[in-house]
Amino acid sequence: MTGTTLATIGYEGSTVDRVIAALLRAGVAHLVDVRAVPNSRKPGFSRRQLEAAALEAGLRYTHLRALGTPKPGREAARRGDADTMRRIFAAHMDAPEPQAELARAIAISREAPACLLCFERDHRMCHRDILAGLIRDRSGARVTHLVAEAV
C-alpha cells in the first residue's frame, strides 16, 4: 500500500495464516485489532496468538479495546441487524475513551500502512467499516477492504 491507505479485514471463515498473507500482499505494516474482546474460538485469533503471528510476519500489532463494539452491538451483528449495530456503535463512539483511541488509530495509520481487524468477513456487517469511514473523514486516508482466502 502506498500513500495514506487504511485497510480493513475480517477473519471469519479464514485462518490466521491466510489473514497474515492477505495483509502482507496488501503491504500492511501495522495490524490494529479493534475487537472489544480480543478472544476467539478460532485457532490463532486470540490476542496473544494473533500478536505473535503478526510480529513473526514482521507486522506491528496494536489492540485498541475502546474501538470495539459494545456487547449489544455485537449481538445485533450476530443477528444480521447491521442497522442496530451501527446505531449502538455510533453512540459508543461519542465517549471520550473511544475518541482517544480513534485519534491513536489515525496516528498509527499516518505512520505506516495499517489494517483494522475484526471478525465479520463482510465489512458492511462490521463496525470496522464505520471506523474506517471516521478515519478517512478525519485524515483523508484511502480505505480498502481486504478479504482473506476462505478455508
CATH topology: Cobalt-precorrin-4 Transmethylase, domain 1
What general outline do the C-alpha atoms trace?
globular
**Given the structure, what is the number of helices?**
6
Gyration radius, rounded: 14 Å
Overall number of strands: 5
Uncertain segments: none
State the strand order across the main sheet.
Answer: 3-2-4-1-5
How would you characterize the largest beta sheet? 5 strands, parallel
List the defining traits of the structure above:
5 strands; 5-stranded parallel beta sheet; 6 helices; Cobalt-precorrin-4 Transmethylase, domain 1; alpha/beta; 151 residues; 15% strand
Structure, described:
The protein is α/β, with parallel strands linked by helices. It has a single domain (5-145), classed as Cobalt-precorrin-4 Transmethylase, domain 1. The chain contains 6 helices and 5 strands. The protein has helices at 16-26, 47-56, 71-78, 82-92, 96-111, 127-139, and strands spanning 5-10, 30-33, 60-63, 114-118, 142-145. Strands 3-2-4-1-5 form a 5-stranded parallel sheet, sandwiched between helices. Helix 3 (71-78) packs antiparallel against helix 4 (82-92) and helix 5 crosses helix 6 (127-139). The chain is globular. It starts with a strand and ends in a 6-residue tail after the last strand. The mean pLDDT is 95.
